[in-house]
Specification:
This protein has 12 helices and no strands. By secondary structure, the protein is mostly helical. Helix 4 crosses helix 10 and helix 5 crosses helix 7.
Length: 276
């Protein structure tokens, strides 16, 4: 813990800002019921009341407190995006390492299946599958995780291919170590830096992708608070000069920027690039 704190103290201002943004969002997501003044679905005022008229950020299209909806939206959107990214990485890394370590027809078979999936635009593929299977949260997580794992597979296979030819991996093979040992103890520790950086980038992509699906009506379903659906539901307010739909859009943008600032710093640090 002291090492992490010391590293953050030596980090550039941009990285510190990114960490601060992530911490604020995490606090909002974890303690949403404590921070939010109302319940997630409670109607507490008139339609599109202005900021400061008894409500910190005004109300939405049916009179729910917008600040409350934003806080609960952080919990719902971020938690689903995080779980989806974790599942995506588990599938992608397992497949990528398996292809790299075993090679041969297994590598070729998995790679060709991945090529077929990646040849279809991911948004169109997701819309097609969700239209058939429905838009419940478990299905949403599984569908996005499987589609996104193709990108993780490509990276994990590429970095693992450079590791499996190393002498220490050959020594482990000669010792008779099994496949899981090679993947877990030999390949993973030596590919961790690019994979951690990719995790941040893929989280941003999944986060934005879920928000996009919610905006189209196939993501997180009402009355559950979600930033993407909040933009869609309140889009009509723009006609009257009300900024309500811009607030969840700003929340999405700020978190994306914060994560990217941290990822950028991590890439510079692991690559040994000094800040000018």
């Amino acid at each position: 813990m002291k090492t992490i704190f010391k590293t953050l103290l030596l980090a550039p201002v941009s990285a510190k800002l990114g960490v601060l943004i992530i911490i604020i969002y995490m606090i909002a997501a974890i303690f949403a019921p404590v921070i939010a003044p109302y319940s997630e679905t409670e109607v507490v005022g008139d339609v599109w009341e202005e900021m400061g008229s008894g409500f910190l950020l005004g109300t939405d299209q049916i009179g729910r407190d917008l600040f409350t909806r934003l806080i609960y939206g952080a919990r719902n959107t971020i938690s689903i995006a995080f779980v989806t990214t974790m599942l995506s990485f588990f599938i992608g890394i397992t497949g990528g390492f398996l292809a790299a370590v075993v090679g041969g027809w297994i590598d070729q078979g998995i790679s060709r299946v991945i090529d077929i999936i990646m040849s279809i635009p991911i948004l169109i593929f997701a819309l097609m599958i969700l239209s058939v299977l429905g838009t419940s949260t478990p299905i949403l997580i599984i569908v996005i995780a499987v589609l996104d794992s193709t990108r993780v597979f490509r990276l994990s296979r590429a970095v693992a291919m450079d590791v499996v030819v190393m002498d220490y991996v050959e020594v482990a093979r000669l010792r008779g170590e099994n496949l899981w040992y090679l993947m877990r103890h030999e390949v993973l520790p030596n590919t961790l830096a690019p994979l951690v950086a990719e995790f941040g980038l893929r989280f941003c992509f999944v986060f934005l992708f879920i928000s996009s699906l919610s905006f189209l009506g196939l993501g997180i379903q009402p009355p559950t608070a979600d930033w993407g659906s909040m933009v869609r539901e309140n889009a009509g307010a723009i006609t009257f000069g009300i900024l309500t739909p811009l607030l969840p859009a700003v929340a999405i943008a700020v978190l994306t920027i914060g994560v990217n600032l941290v990822v950028d710093w991590f890439l510079h640090k692991t690559a040994g690039i000094k800040e000018s």
